[in-house]
TrEMBL record:
EC identifiers of the protein: 3.1.3.18
Organism the protein comes from: Anaerobiospirillum thomasii
A single GO molecular function term of this UniProt record: phosphoglycolate phosphatase activity
Classification of source organism: Bacteria, Pseudomonadati, Pseudomonadota, Gammaproteobacteria, Aeromonadales
Keyword Hydrolase on entry: yes
Catalytic activity from the UniProt record: 2-phosphoglycolate + H2O = glycolate + phosphate
This protein's name: phosphoglycolate phosphatase
The protein's annotated pathway: Organic acid metabolism; glycolate biosynthesis; glycolate from 2-phosphoglycolate: step 1/1
Keywords: Hydrolase
NCBIfam families per UniProt: HAD-SF-IA-v1, PRK13222.1-2
Gene Ontology terms: cellular component: cytosol
Length: 228
């Protein structure tokens, strides 16, 4: 079925942003007098929102939970993180190959596009602006706007309602189990990219409808829907 709505994850899907996330989290640990994990180690903590990233960083453990950190400590850590991360949003990232050309092409086809990310709205919008792709999207939903995040299907349903689309005509595009499960939980077709951040797991293990190794393969898929 032809897809007229594309829902994209951001980190690990459209851009390689792990360095800026890890640098900001490491600065928080240093500022607060905690052990500072390596940037490479902190990179494995990404994928479940800023507070979870901070909890894992401060506890120096992938198995840490938000509840493991005292509320006042987490609040202070988040304030520092917001400041450090906002300062670094314009650097230490790269857009993946073929993303810009693909988004422009999808826009030319008349496809509605949205970003649904667990990254807070505070960061998502300016990052997309730095990437010079913000204007291509019809909607951007950050992870703290609603009380539910991916893999819960509600953010996807919420955005579909905003765009006036249906599940059957939409495609959830992401790089992690959270993205694929969110799509599957509302019976939506999914695209999983192998190059992103899935905690070291093969995205194919999540059984996406389509598993791709390059954004160019998504361009080819959409092109086949509209030209054949």
């Amino acid at each position: 079925m032809k897809k007229d709505i594309l829902l994209f994850d951001l980190d690990g899907t459209l851009a390689h942003t792990l360095p800026q996330l890890a640098i900001a989290a490491s600065k928080v640990a240093q500022k607060m007098g905690y052990f500072v994990p390596s940037v490479e180690e902190i990179a494995t903590y990404v994928g479940n929102g800023a507070n979870m990233l901070l909890a894992r960083t401060l506890r120096h453990s992938i198995d840490a939970k938000i509840e493991d950190i005292d509320e006042s400590v987490l609040k202070e850590a988040r304030e520092h993180f917001n400041s450090f991360y906002l300062q670094g949003l314009g650097s230490d990232y790269s857009i993946y190959p073929h993303v810009k050309e693909g988004l422009v092409y999808f826009k030319e086809l008349g496809i509605k596009m949205a970003v649904i990310t667990n990254k807070p709205q505070l960061f998502a919008v300016p990052l997309l602006e730095h990437m010079q792709v913000y204007e291509l999207f019809d909607y951007v939903l950050g992870g703290e706007v609603l009380d539910k995040k991916k893999p819960d299907p509600y953010p996807l349903i919420y955005v579909l309602e905003k765009l006036g689309g249906s599940v059957d005509a939409a495609l959830m595009v992401g790089d992690s189990v959270n993205d694929i499960k969110a799509g599957q939980n509302c019976n939506m077709d999914t695209v999983g990219f192998s190059y992103g951040y899935n905690m070291g797991c093969d995205i194919r293990e999540c059984n996406p409808t389509y598993a791709f190794d390059s954004f160019s393969q998504l361009i080819e898929l959409i092109d086949s829907m509209y030209t054949k």
